[in-house]
Amino acid sequence: MLSIIAVAMAGIAYVATRGQEPTEREVTTVSRKADPTPTATPSTPVKTDKEKKKPAKPQVQRGKVYVEVYNNSGITGLAGRIATQATDAGWQVVGSDNWYGTIPTSTVYYPQRLKAAGKMLALDLGIQRVMPAVDGPMRLDRLTVVLTADAA
């Protein structure tokens, strides 16, 4: 019984596909001769769609970003010294004071919209740790630098 059904299905498939173009095509290879003397021709690099659509990152304008510097170490005048260093680098330092709490190492805290600025400030001051700001003890319209004994 199964044999009869298989033969019938093969016959139907043959009749249904008769007269159609074959789906396989003949492939021929073309060999190229190598040019014995290559010539240098200037070429323009071709940009892919990804490169063309990449928006330019907005540049951080140091003078438009507020910065507060806090001392969380026993070093007298550390916040003032680093605040001066940040001002000299072009940042708008709006205050410096002591920080009360426990911070493991000197850190630049940033609100989400100032993430790039926070990373740049950390580079300017030689601080390795950059973290999102904590709502409550920190203001979310500026960068907050908390310094410990290992500060730059």
Description of the molecule:
This protein has a five-stranded mixed β-sheet with strand order 2-1-5-3-4, with helices on one face. Helix content is 28%, strand content 17%. The protein is elongated. With 152 residues, the chain is of the alpha/beta class. The chain has a domain at 62-111 and 119-147: 2-Layer Sandwich (Alpha-Beta Plaits). It has helices at residues 2-17, 49-53, 78-88, 115-125; strands at 66-71, 92-98, 107-110, 129-132, 143-147.
Question: What's the quick description here?
Answer:
The chain has a domain at 62-111 and 119-147: 2-Layer Sandwich (Alpha-Beta Plaits). Helix content is 28%, strand content 17%.
